[in-house]
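Example (one chain per record):
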Amino acid sequence: MSKAPHPAYVVSMTNLHTTAASLATDGKGILAADESINTMSARLAKVGVEGTATNRRDYRELLLSTLGLSKWVAGIILCDETLRQHTADGTPFPQRATALGIQSGIKVDIGTTALPFSDGEVVTQGLDGLAERLAEYRELGATFAKWRAVLQAGASTRACWANAHALARYAALCQDAGLVPIVEPEVLMDGGHPIEACQATTAAILSATFAELDQAGVDPAGLVLKPNMVIAGTAATSQSNSEDVARCTVQVLRDKVPAQVPSIAFLSGGQSNERACANLGEINRQASQVGVPWRLTFSFGRALVDDALRTWAGQPGQVAEAQQALSDNCARASAAAQGLDEGAV
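Predicted structure:
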């Protein structure tokens, strides 16, 4: 006869359920601002801004301090550097986010490494010492975390299961530490593959991921799934329209994602804001027709912030215009998360 769970565990899981559900309510989504120091510095350099810690902080403060951001964004994913930084007035980033009604998340993987005995495939790393890091991040104010697995369309079974296993170990450590895990298995848009290839690989990685999550004891009601949309490769001869993207995406989700998962927050994967939102809106409309148990929302990075970054370009006088660009993109994404036409919210 199995023992009843400890009361503290029950309370902890209840808190995780509440947090996971709150990250996708009322058309809200998650803003991904978790680029590594090197990646963020390179993006700053492209718009003529030196990649210093101060400039990285100023850019992310610009995002977070956008007026009305919490109308569209429930959580913001940060990197280790930003979670430890203070805004210009001396307030720690997580405290500033909380005051604005936005939860702070933290990217915890440390990138990819070559997967042995595979043809150029990779597996994400960062499990060593993760339990200790998660405990510290929670003390710093994070309520959720993120781990990204990266696969090409047509990925091998070995790559799918290796990445699924790492995602499950990460998710279990997160829930044990009291943080909601964002589980992100991404099938990249790069390449000339048709939408059917993306659909097959997405189905394979989701199947493997939820099997491994179950084996690891992860509670699906206390996580957020962050998958790719099912879409043809960027160099494909035949590009996917929104109706096809939605049909294939909804089919895969209905086949592979447990009903207990409270929300699915799609990544943009390099799509423009307009295209990602058009696809998300159609996904929600088709999902509502067949009935699905999850909230379907967004966790976009570049699709939300690229316009703001280009507009700001390190110029203090451009902050307001940059924030307006971010607001416009967030409002469009929020409308799409509700299956509404642009401008409806």
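Caption: The CA atoms of residues 85 and 91 lie 8 Å apart.
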